[in-house]
Amino acid sequence: MRPLKFRLFLLPLLLLGLGFIAAAVPPAGGYAFAQDQQPAQPSQQTDQQQPAQLANGLLEAAVADLAKAKRAFAAIQDGAKQSEMDDETLVALSGQVDDLNRSVTAISARLKPRTAEIDTRLTQLGAAPKEGQPPEAPIVTQERDRLNAERSQISAVILDADNLTAETNRLSMQLMEMRRKLFAETLFKRTDISATTFGDAGAALVDEGIKFSDAVTSWIGFVLKAKLASFLAAVCLSIGAALLFLSGGYRLFRRYYVQDETIENPPYISRLSVAFWSTLIRTLSLAAFLVTSFFFLSNFNVLRPDIAPILAAIFGFIGLVYFVGRLSNAVFAPFRPHWRLVKLSNKGAHSLTWCLQAMAVVNGLDYVFDRISESMGSPVVVTVAKSFLAALLIGLILIAASFGSPMLAKNGDPDAPGRRWPHGMAIILRVLGILVIFTSFIGYVGLARFMATQLIVTSAVIATMYLGFQLGKAVSKQGVFAETIIGRFLENRLTLGEVALDQAGLAAGLATYAVALLTGIPLILLSWGFHIQDLELFAYKLFTEIRIGNISISLLGICVGILLFAGGYLVTRWFQRWLDSNVMARGQVDLGVRNSVKTGIGYLGIAVAAIISISAAGIDLSSLALVASALSVGIGFGLQNIVSNFVSGLILLVERPFKVGDWIVSGTSEGIVKRISVRATEIETFRKQSIIVPNSELINASVGNWTHRNRLARSEIPVSVSYDADPRRVMDILLELVRGIPKVLRNPEPHVEFLRFGPSSLDFEMRFYLSDLSDGMEIRNNLRIEILKRFKEEGISIPYPHQELHIIRDGRKNGQAEVAANELTDSADGPEADNHIAERLALPAEENAPEAKGAGRRRGRTVAQ
Predict the structure, then answer these.
(1) Does the N-terminal or the C-terminal CB of the chain have fewer CB atoms within 10 Å?
(2) Whole-angstrom distance, CA of residue 95 vs CA of residue 91
C-alpha cells in the first residue's frame, strides 16, 4: 500500500523548500555526469597553426562522452526492468533519464560550432576543379579532403547522439507509462473483506505492537548510550529554530493574521485577509520547524533507518492536523462569530470544525500506522484492515455531518438554532460517505482510502486557494487597498497618492493570486500521485528549459536578462547624470552639446544592455538574422517613415544644425527647441505650446535658426513723420536715443535709413544690433516710448493716413453726388463704408431722389446751425 499513500501527509513539511530546491539545484545525476564530462572539455582558445589536432581532441572527447552516456542508458534500462513495481525507483530513474537527455544534447551542441567552422572554410576553398579545368595546388586538395573527412566524422557522432536522444525520450515515456500502470493497479487492487481478514489482522497487529515497542526501546537506548550529545544538540537547534520561526512570524505578520477582538463588525476584506494569511503563514511556520527538526536529527545520525520513516510520518500527521485545524478555525471561526466567513450558526460552526478535524486525525493516524507496519515488516492484511476502518470512520463522519443543521437562522442570530443544509449539499455529503463505505466493503480499500484522503487534503487546499483568490480580487478593487493596513502604511511612509495606491493594490492582488497558485498547485499534484522529484524536475525544466519546436526558452535566463537590462539601464542613466553634472557642466559645455552627448550615451547604453540581456536570456542573436532580413521588406515599405525619422534624428544629433535651446523657424512652427529624440523634435512656441515635429521634416525642409552660431541679431523699428519735419533732425534724434541704450552694440554701429516718401509721411527705419536677441522685445518697446516722448517735445508729428475728396455737381446726378459727399463725410475710412456707398450709387435715380433731397435738407440745417 505504500505507493497508494503518495506521501500525502508530508505536503506541508516539504512545501517550504520545494521551490528553492527546484530552481537552484538540478537533479543529482546531472551534477555527476557533468563532472565526468569536465575533464574532456577542450579549450576554446585554439591555435590556428594546429586546427586538425584541436578538432580531433574535441571529437575524441565527444566520442568518449557519448560512449559513457550509452553505458548509463543501458544501466537505466536494466534498472527499469528490475523495478517495475517500485514507484520511488522509477521516479529516480526518470530523473536520471532527464539528466542523460540534457547531457547528450550538450554533446551535439559542442560539435555544431566546429561543423560551422568547417563549412565556412570549405566555402572559402571552393569546389574541386572539374575535368578540363586547371588543377589546384596540392595543399588545397589536402586541406579540403581533411576537412571533409573531419566533417563526416563529426556528422556521424552528431547523428549517433541524436539517436541516443530519441532513445532517452522513448525511455522516459516508458517509465511514465509504467508509473501510471502501477498507480492504477495499486488503486484498483481488490482485497477480500471477511471476518478471517480481520482475525488475521488482529493477530498480526499484536506482533507488530511488540516489534514496534522493542524498536522504540532499542532506539532510545541507542540514543542515550551513543548519540545523547547529538540528540540534545539536534533538539536544542530544533527548539531554537521553532522559537525563531514562531517569534519572527509573530513579529512580522501578527497584524495580518491576528483577529482583533476590539473590532465588532470587521469588513469582509479584513476577514478574508486574516483567514488566508493566518492559515498560510502559521502552517508554513510549523512546517519549517518540523522540516528543520527532521533535518537536524537525520544529519546528526540520531535516527535509525527503521525509526526515520515513522518520525517523518508523525511530523506529517502533526502538520496535516494543524493545517486542517487552522483552516477550519479561520473560515468557520467557532468562537468569534463576527470574523466568520460563512453564514453558520455557532453550534454549526463548532460541529463542522470538529468533523473536519476528526477526519484529519483519522486520516493522519492511518498514515502513521501504515508507516509503522511498513517499517516493522507487517503483513499486508494489517494495512488493509487499518485502511478499511479509517475509510469507514470517514464515511460515517460525512453521513453524520449531512444530517446536521449548521446554517445561520433567518433572524441572523448566531446563537439561535440553525437551519438544515441546503438540499443539494446534504445529498452530496451522504453520497460521498456512502460511496466511501460501499467501496471499502466490496474490497477496493485502496480506492476508498484514496477518495477519503482527497476529500480532506484536496478540499482543504482548494478552500485555501479560494480564500487567496477572493482576497486578491477584493484587494485589487479600486480604492480598497488604501483602506488596508499595508495601504495606510505605504501612504504614510512613502506619501503615495490615490493613483499610486490603486496601482499598488493591483500589484498586491496579483501577488496574492501567485502565492495561492504556487502554494496550492504543488500540494494538489502531490496528493494526486505526483512525486516530489517530479515537481522538482518540472520546476527545473520550467525555469531552465522550455522547448517550443527547435527553440529553447529559459524562464530563469529571461529573468536574469531582464535584471541585467534593468541594471544596464540604471547604470546608463547614472552615467548620463554624472557626466552632465560633473564633467560637461564644469567645463561650461554648450547646452546643445550636452544634450546631444547625453542622448547618444543613453541610446548606446540601452543598446548594449539590450544585447547583453538578450544573450543572457539564451537567445541566439545569429538566429535573429533571418528574422531581420524578412522584416527588412516590411521596414522598407510599412515602416519607412519611422526609419526615416530615426535616421534623421541620428543626423540631427551628430550634425547639430540646431540644438536644445535654439530659436528656430520651420514652416509655420517657430519657438525654442526643448528636446531632440531619434523620432521627433519638440519645439515650444512663445505661447507655451509644444509642437512635435518629425525629424524627417526638419532634415528635408528649410529651417531658420536664429541662434545657430551666436545670439547676435539685428532689430528694426520703423518710424514715420509728417512732411513738415526736418529729416536730418529726425535721424539725429533717433540715433541719439538708440545710442543711449546700453545693450545696443556699438559694432556694428546703429544707423537710420530714410526709406521712402510715403503717401502721407516720410518713412524712416532705425536699425541696431543686439548681443542677445531675446532682449529685442524689451528694447524696442522702450525705444518706441522714448521716440514718442521726444517727438512731442520737438514738435514733430506722426501723421495718420487721410484723404481729400472733391465733389463735382453736374445736372441730373446732383442728388447722387450729394449723397456720396454726405456718406464720405460722415463715415469712417473702412471698406464696409465704401461698399455701402457703391450700393447706394448703383440704385436708380428715382429711388435715390427723395433720400438725396432729405439728406440735402438735413445738411443745410446743420450748416445753418
Answers:
(1) C
(2) 6
Question: Residues 6 or more apart from 695 whose CB is under 8 A from it?
Answer: 645, 646, 648, 649, 651, 652, 678, 679, 680, 681
In sequence order, the 6+-apart residues with CB closer than 8 A to the CB of 155 are 115
Where do runs of H (alpha helix) occur along 333-345?
Answer: none
Report CA torsion sign: 491, 493, 495, 499: negative
Q: How many Å apart are CA 605 and CA 566, to the nearest integer?
A: 11
More confident residue, 43 or 76: 76
Nearest Cα residue to 526 out of 512, 544, 541, 538: 538
The mean pLDDT value for 29-42 works out to 35
Give the domain ranges of the chain: 57-127+142-188, 195-216+303-443, 553-619, 653-705, 713-794
Sign of the CA dihedral running 375, 380, 382, 386: positive
Question: Which residues of 286-334 form beta strands (DSSP E)?
Answer: none
State the cell numbers at 334: 467557532
**CATH of region 653-705, choose from 1.20.1110.10, 2.30.29.30, 2.30.30.60, 1.10.10.10:** 2.30.30.60
Q: How many whole angstroms separate alpha carbon 575 and alpha carbon 484?
A: 39
DSSP notation for 161-220: HHHHHHHHHHHHHHHHHHHHHHHHHHHT-----SHHHHHHHHHHHHHHHHHHHHHHHHHH
Give the H or E element holding residue 767: strand 762-770
Query: 587-607 b/e with 16+ CB inside 10 Å = b?
Result: eeeeebebbbbbbebbbebee
Which value, to the nearest 10 degrees, does the dihedral of the CA atoms of residues 219, 224, 228, 232 take? 80
How far apart are alpha carbons 277 and 266 in whole angstroms? 16
**Residue 625's pLDDT is what?**
59
Crossing angle (nearest 10°) for helices 532-544 and 87-125: 20
pLDDT at 656 over 50: yes
Measured distance CA(520)–CA(513) in Å, rounded: 11
Residue 102 to residue 92: CA distance in whole angstroms:
16
How close are the terminal C-alpha atoms of the chain, in Å? 134
Contacts of 733 (CB under 8 A, 6+ apart): 787, 790, 791, 794, 796
Supply the pLDDT for residue 24.
37
Is residue 254 a contact partner of residue 290, using CB atoms and an 8 Å limit?
no
Domains 653-705 and 713-794 equal at CATH topology level: no
Q: In the predicted model, is pLDDT for residue 795 greater than 80?
A: yes
Residue 200 grid cell: 488475521
Look at residue 45 and tell me whether its pLDDT is greater than 90.
no
Q: How many residues are there in the chain?
A: 865
- pLDDT class of 553 with cuts at 50, 70, 90: low
The model's pLDDT over 345-391, given as tens digits with 9 standing for 90+, comes to: 888 888 888 888 888 898 888 888 888 888 887 777 788 888 888 88
* pLDDT averaged over every residue in the chain: 76
CATH 3.40.50.1820 is right for the domain spanning 713-794: no
Asked if residue 446 lies in contact with residue 452, where contact means CB atoms within 8 angstroms, the answer is: no
> Strand runs (DSSP E) across 542-661, as ranges?
546-548, 551-553
- d(CA 311, CA 372) in angstroms, rounded, equals 10
